[in-house]
Design a protein that fits this description.
This protein has 178 residues and is mainly beta. The protein contains 1 helix and 10 strands. Strand 1 and strand 2 form a beta hairpin. The radius of gyration is 16 Å and the shape is globular.
Length: 178
């Protein structure tokens, strides 16, 4: 029964993601958010530490909402483990706030099993390349992991080197749901 619920939930999420009509996918990333049309995004010509660079830039002002560059994966090897998302971020003129984010989804579409969007350590203003991290537990009943980067309000951001890896239980989580 649990396996059937997981499969049905995953099918729903995959269907939802593939039906996003306002955004193409680039290297597995796509644009979403409460106001995705208010942001331009893409892959930059530049590289950072030999890695691809993606951008998210506001195209209107003001913006009452957010845009995100994100991806969605199945828990697979991370099921029942603690994971750390690391990435590098550069910002220019962020008027609201920006941050990396990660969410662990279960079968209930109205709540997350774990979540962190860095709002309690938000990025604002103009900043050079800086490394950030998020640490969450992936419960055995998880059906998906979503992660990315968001801008709430106006400004320009660049991201590079996002990496998801298993870490030990001795590494504290940044879970905002607890």
């Amino acid at each position: 029964m649990k396996t059937t619920i997981r499969i049905l939930t995953l099918m729903f999420v995959v269907t939802l993601i593939t039906q996003i009509s306002y955004s193409q996918k680039i290297d597995g990333w796509f644009k979403a958010g409460s106001k995705p049309e208010s942001y331009d995004w893409g892959k930059a010509d530049e590289k950072y530490s030999d890695g691809a660079v993606y951008f998210l830039k506001s195209n209107v002002t003001p913006i009452d909402g957010f845009g995100t560059i994100m991806t969605y994966i199945m828990p697979g090897q991370y099921s029942g483990k603690r994971v750390k998302l690391t990435g590098y971020v550069k910002n220019e003129s962020i008027t609201g706030w920006a941050g990396m984010w990660m969410r662990v989804d279960g079968t209930d579409p109205n709540s997350s099993l774990a979540f962190d969007n860095m709002v309690n350590r938000a990025i604002a203003g103009t900043n050079d390349w800086t490394r950030y991290e998020i640490v969450l537990d992936v419960a055995p009943e998880a059906v998906g992991i979503a992660y990315g980067f968001l801008v709430s309000g106006t400004g320009n951001s660049w991201i590079s080197g996002f990496n998801l890896e298993e870490v030990g239980k001795d590494v504290p989580t940044t879970d905002m749901t607890k």
